[in-house]
Design a protein that fits this description.
157 residues, ten-stranded mixed β-sheet, globular
Length: 157
Amino acid sequence: SDAHNQKIKLGPITILTIGAYYHSFKCINMHVLLDKKLSHNFTTDKNNIYNALKSGHSWVSYDYFINSKGFRFILKTKSKTYLIGSRVNLELGMFFIIKLPKLAKLLVIKDGEVWRNIIGDYFVIKVEEIGVYRLEVYHQYGKSWRPWIFTNSFWLV
């Protein structure tokens, strides 16, 4: 998150704070998926986090209104599970599993175009074509949809 905590004053009195730390750090967050639990060893954990980021095992979310904790986007084959950011050879029987913390509008983007546009909180989607797949998720606010979760891609080759 980015915060500036800029104060607007009228004489000696602060009348408005823009980008207050408390609110800003609750807004846009980077979520990193690790394939191992944190060991509490600084060097080991730092390397695991950097490797996860380098591999694209992450998503960005606007968590201020609704926390994205519990969100999952994985690719499964008969024998293996892959995390966001993985480059995988296409096989027969592959599918995505997508779990959202609450009902939302899901756009599955394939090769830069909307491939699926669906509403729900749990999806199993069969994958039969090579391509680059990522998600955009929007939560409902009144009659409109607000940006919420944006993932890195799966690369199916």
